[in-house]
Structure formats: structure tokens, C-alpha cells
Amino acid sequence: MIIKKFQAKTEKEAILAAQTELGNSAVIMNIKTTRPHGIMKLFKKEIVEVTAALEEKEDNPVTEKEEPKNPKPPVPNPPPEPSSEGMEQRLDNIQSLLEQQIQKEESEPLVQEEEEMEEKEWMPFLRMVYKQLLDNEVEEGCANQIIAEVERSIKKETSVDNILAAVYQKIILKLGEPKKIEYDGKQKKVYFFIGPTGVGKTTTIAKLASELKMYQHAKLALMTSDTYRLAAVEQLRIYANILELPLQVVYEPEDLNRNLKLLSEYDTILVDTAGRSHKNEEHCNELKELLQSLPTNCEYQPEVFLVVSITTKYSDLVNICNRYKDLCQYSVIFTKLDETAGIGNILNIAMLEGGTISYQTSGQNVPDDIAVIDVQKVAKQLLGGV
């Protein structure tokens, strides 16, 4: 007896597959519809499974024997009369075997299907959360990962409120602890601000400089290597004059150490760098040379912040982050939050690139429009809250 299962999108296709392989004499023993399990059952179609059986023909092996020289014609034995009781018993045994095998193989999927019926109460809600994340420009892979991890912790009795709380906490964990500049008056530090052209590095530096001097009372100085952009030095000089801060210009990488010596009485230095395209190898090498010009025995501890616009297309943002990661380790500052309602890129970068998030800016006002990223607020916004 041959017993096989065939799967297809429709019942007709599954039966046709069974008859094609086993022949038209195949007997269809069972037809059922299976559903995919896990979160992906929200997006995949059902599959029809057909169990078919075919009775094999018995071939009696022929044993060749040496014939005698003077063979005598064999006396045929009368064929045995078929026993109706034996035939019925055989059919009963086959039927019982089929029923046991089908019941054994299908018992676990049936239990799973019953559980899925009970899960329908919260699955639509989880699908709504998934869609909300996508609407806020969370990358599909990130959204799938969060939903899948939350789904594994959900029990039958879990309420909708607890599911939402689980997603909220999962997002906060993925965002991580934001990196911020904290002045302690002990360790001298030099902060480099890098990133593409036009993302607002200079304005971001002015905002941070205002906060560090007015609220943390840091002994602060400014430096710039952006001698390529027209009036870039003058723009930073205006902020330096307003805040009464010294400003030094870096024309060549070796100027960095010379300027640090001139500013040795200051323990916090903010360095503005020229906007660089991540696709321009020459410009990236110039930036790398500047970052590496700081000697290992320097009294200033270096830290780097990558400044990017949150309105940048996700695929481009990934390329930018990966390219600068080849140059140095950094924390990410997101600018222009006032120009978009979708803040999914904050979560995308924290998850996919393993980057450390830092500040966010939302306008041109100095020093008001800057703040450390509030991960709780971001999580609420991604889930449709305010």
C-alpha cells in the first residue's frame, strides 16, 4: 500500500497531482486545508493537502530450477477458493491502518489550528500595530523582527493592552540609550561632527555650543575644517562671536594638533568638518586623514558624531552610515525632524546598523531646537501616539 500527501493551492490541483503520480486508480483518503503558522500567517494564503492511497500489486519471484532430463508434465493443483472472510479481514486491516496513520499525522496540526482560532482575537490588533510601524517609515525587516519577537511572548490570555505595552517596551530596547555630551571638567575632549553636505552640521554645533556654555558652563572652544564651502568659516565665526568663544581654522590635517595646543586651556573642543559625499572616495580619505591626525598620546579624547537628515531615503541613509563606519565609530544626530512626520529612520538606524543614537534637531532656532532623543516619545509616536 502506497500512501502519499500532495499539496497545492486548490483542491482540484492537489487531486490532479495525486492522480498524475499514482494513476487514476488512486483513492483519495483525506482532504484538508492547512494554514501557515506564526506572524507570517497574516500574509500567506492557505494550502490544500490531499492524502491519496494506491494498493501495490504483488509480484511472486520465480525460482529457476534445473529441469530433469525426462521431465514429466506437472499435475496442476486446483486454485484455492477465495475466502470472503479473508478478503473482508484484509480490507478491514487496510482501512484501520489508513485511519491510524492519517489520525497520527494530523493530530498535531489540528491542535495548532484550534489554537490559531483562539488567537484571532489579538492577531488583527498585531497586524494593525505592524501597519502603523510601516506607515511611520519603519523598515519592513525591522517591523517584522519586532512583531515576531513580541508574538513569541504572547499567551492566549494576554490582553490587547499588554500586547501594546510589549511592543512599546521592545521598541525602547531596540532604540537603546542615547549618547549625549556631558561636561565633567575632568577629561579633555574633542568632538568631531561629520556628515553629508546640507544636513545642518554648523547650526547643530552652534546649538550644542550654546547649551554647553550656558547650562553646563563648559570651558569651550570651536574649530572648523570646512574651508571648501563659501562663507562656512564666517557662519561659524558669527556664532563664536555671539557666544564669546575662540575659533580656530584647520586648513591641513597637521593644523589640528597645532590648534589644540593653542586652545590647551579649554577642555571641550567642537570641530566642524566639511560636508562630504559618501560616494566620493577622495573626500572620504581627506576626512579619514583629519580624524587620524590626532596623536595617540593626545590629552584630548576624541568622539565623533555623524549628522544626518531624517528625511533622507532609507536606502541612502544605510549607505551613508556604512561608508562612514569604515572611517570611524560614531553616534548619530538626526536633523530636520520638523520637515517630516515619519521618524522611522531613528529606529531603523538603531536596529539595522547597530548605531548609537544621540540628538535630534527640529528647526533653526539656537539653542532651543535641539534635544537628546527621547526614546519613550519616539516609541509612542511610532505606535500612533503623540
Q: Keywords, please?
A:
386 residues, alpha/beta, 8-stranded mixed β-sheet
Number of alpha- plus pi-helical segments: 12
**Poorly predicted regions:** 60-67
Task: Give the distance, in angstroms, between the N- and C-terminal Cα atoms.
Answer: 65 Å
- Considering DSSP H and I runs of 4 or more, what fraction of the residues is helical? 40-55%
Structural class: alpha/beta
The strand line-up of the biggest sheet is 6-5-7-4-8-9-10-11
- Overall average pLDDT: 82
- The total strand number stands at 11
Largest sheet: 8 strands, mixed
SSE order: EHEEHHHHEHEHEHEHEHEHEEH
Q: If you compute it from the alpha carbons, what radius of gyration comes out, rounded to the nearest whole angstrom?
A: 36 Å
Shape: elongated
Q: Beta-sheet strand percentage?
A: 15-25%
What is the strand and helix layout of this fold?
Elements: E1 2-8, H1 11-22, E2 27-34, E3 47-54, H2 84-119, H3 123-135, H4 140-153, H5 160-175, E4 189-194, H6 201-214, E5 220-224, H7 232-243, E6 247-249, H8 255-262, E7 268-272, H9 281-292, E8 301-309, H10 314-325, E9 331-335, H11 344-352, E10 356-361, E11 370-372, H12 375-382
Parallel strand pairs: 4-7, 4-8, 5-6, 5-7, 8-9, 9-10
Antiparallel strand pairs: 1-3, 2-3, 10-11
Helix pairs in contact: 3-4, 4-5, 5-12, 6-7
